[in-house]
TrEMBL record:
Its EC number is 2.7.7.65. GO terms for molecular function: diguanylate cyclase activity. It comes from the Bacteria. Pfam families: GGDEF, PAS_3. Gene3D superfamilies: 3.30.70.270, PAS domain. It is an enzyme of class 2 (transferase). SUPFAM superfamilies: Nucleotide cyclase, PYP-like sensor domain (PAS domain). Residues 82-134 form the PAC domain. This is diguanylate cyclase. CDD domains: GGDEF, PAS. It catalyses: 2 GTP = 3',3'-c-di-GMP + 2 diphosphate. Keywords: Nucleotidyltransferase, Transferase. Residues 173-310 form the GGDEF domain.
Amino acid sequence: MNAFSNDPDVYRTLLESTRAIPWKIEWATMEFAYIGPQIEQVLGWRQDSWKTVGDWASRIHEEDRQKTVDFCVAQSMQGADHEADYRALTADGEMVWIRDVVHVVRNPDGSPQALVGFMFDISERKKAEDKILQLQKELEALSYQDALTMVANRRMFDTILEMEWTKARVTAQPLSLVLLDIDFFKAYNDRHGHPQGDACLRQVARVLDASASRTRDLCARLGGEEFALLLPATGVLAAQEVARRCRKLLAQAAIPHGGSAVSEWVSCSMGVGTVVPGVHDNVRAFIETVDRRLYEAKHGGRDRIVGGPA
């Protein structure tokens, strides 16, 4: 065992037979004392082209270079072992994700004497991590989307409403809300069937989404046949105009409704409210006010709009 452990050729053979890339840098000169031949297979740069720390730094992607160098230098000066992930440039201009695992060899006084470590090609791992991250983002997006109509769901509505309420209070701008119900929707389902009812909800959602045409406008399905339009920076008259446009577009869609008592086509009842939130105003109270107006529209004959300043 002693002969084996003292044979440098054995160690070199072991190091150079792994997929990890061993290396050593002398701290005083910032020059490579050694780097494994595996570097040519992974990055394409000749083994003898790794002379100094500058060669290493120049072969890091420019977007990762400064932060990686600064981090590694700071950790090394403190004598702290560390790891760094970065994108390395290959000799033919491609890119490989590298993980550098660094050990600091220190002098008796604690100052750095040398850095030794291993480079690992983690490109496949990064691809898998990026795929998982993308799936997580897609799942998060789905969690804010109504699965049937593909507009925002109640969760998204509550989140955006809180944000827009705060923004409107800070900027002293008006915030408008339209709450609406499809008239006699239960009778629609009873007459036409639930699959056709789902199709109706999708059609109505498309109409409403088209009505909320600005980037910050939000169309959401709150549940069942109830929808909401959140209209930031929208005054009383403009909110009323949006509600009328919804009613007009829905009439133009001419979705047959054999169970309605007010129209042969699908119609809706709307409550509209506008407020410039003050420090003492409450967002839930605002919603309740608009909801009462929706109730008035429904019980006042349906297929109508009730609204104004909240």
